[in-house]
TrEMBL record:
Residue ranges of domain Histidine kinase in the record: 20-244
Region of the whole protein represented: 298 to 559 of 692
Keywords: ATP-binding, Coiled coil, Kinase, Nucleotide-binding, Phosphoprotein, Transferase, Two-component regulatory system
Keyword ATP-binding: yes
Name used for this protein in its record: histidine kinase
Record bears the keyword Lipoprotein: no
Domain of life of the source: Bacteria
Gene Ontology terms, MF aspect: ATP binding; phosphorelay sensor kinase activity
Organism (species): Methylobacterium phyllostachyos
A GO BP entry: regulation of DNA-templated transcription
């Protein structure tokens, strides 16, 4: 669980890193197109003296831009996945204390672990990161405090529901985070999975949380669905396909825990 907090801090750093890279990349592109423009003017004027210099400048900028994207790719490849059958009830219960410490005492957290929730085949640390990120988003939507409900459930997606939500028909378990916060406009909902989309002030939001959660769910054969009402709150649900293989431990245990208001 502590690892999840480190991950979330790392993501903040990644956001700053990639934001910085995008900025540098843009500068290099501006340099390249500026050089090209100057080259064109000189050629139209028939003055070829400086053309070679501009060409060298453009080439240098293009090489530095390529080096930048290589750094980004190397970074993104570093994350290795280790999927295993995971009891989402236990994962949520184990995370509760860390989440409470992260969101602060003004928010009451309730974990509702549905009895007999199906196992999922996922990398548990990725799911921990996803859960923590959903709760941080929930906190950010409740500046004056409120409630977070973390709930697990089993769900059969029939043909119609599956098609509607762009996922294969079948059995899924869901991990939903509900808050009593500001809610989202349809315009925001339409864009939340875009990398770097954020409505938060610079330095506070990276716009990477939901896009990474979406990527994780898609990789795992699942989906992320959002239900939100302005002024009422938001529910974000991660759906993961049921895992039918063997499961190591007490799968059926039900957990309903409440932290005291303190
Ligand atoms: P970030 O949190 O860094 O902005 P995310 O991808 O996690 O990046 O979220 C993108 C945007 O979606 C947020 O800036 C916010 O506008 C909106 N959002 C996400 N979760 C919630 C929520 N629980 N309540 C209200 N708005 C939300």
């Amino acid at each position: 669980a502590e690892e999840a907090l480190r991950q979330s801090q790392k993501m903040e750093a990644v956001g700053q890193l990639t934001g910085g890279l995008a900025h540098d990349f843009n500068n290099l592109l501006a340099g390249i197109s500026g050089s090209l423009e100057l080259m064109q003017t000189r050629m139209q004027q028939g003055r070829l003296t400086d053309v070679d210099r501009y060409m060298t400048a453009a080439q240098g900028a293009a090489k530095r831009a390529a080096a930048l994207t290589h750094r980004l790719l190397a970074f993104s490849r570093r994350q290795t996945l280790d999927p295993k059958p995971t009891n989402v009830n236990r994962l949520a219960a184990d995370m509760q204390e860390l989440i409470q410490r992260t969101v602060g005492p003004a928010i009451l957290i309730e974990v509702v672990g549905t009895m007999g929730v199906w196992p999922a085949l996922v990398d548990p640390s990725q799911l921990e990161n996803a859960l923590l990120n959903l709760c941080i988003n929930a906190r950010d939507a409740m500046p004056d405090g409120g409630r977070i409900i973390i709930e697990t459930a089993n769900k059969w997606m029939d043909d119609r529901a599956a098609r509607q939500h762009d996922m294969p028909e079948g059995q899924y378990l869901s991990l939903c985070v509900t808050d009593t916060g500001t809610g989202m406009t349809p315009e925001v909902i339409a864009r939340v999975f875009e990398p770097f989309f954020t409505t938060k002030p610079i330095g506070e939001g990276t716009g990477l949380g939901l896009s990474m959660i979406y990527g994780f769910a898609q990789q795992s054969g699942g989906q992320v669905l959002i239900y939100s009402e302005i002024g009422q709150g938001t529910t974000v649900c991660i759906y993961l396909p049921r895992h039918y293989g063997e499961v190591a431990d007490d799968e059926g245990a039900a957990l309903v825990t409440n932290l005291p208001r303190s």
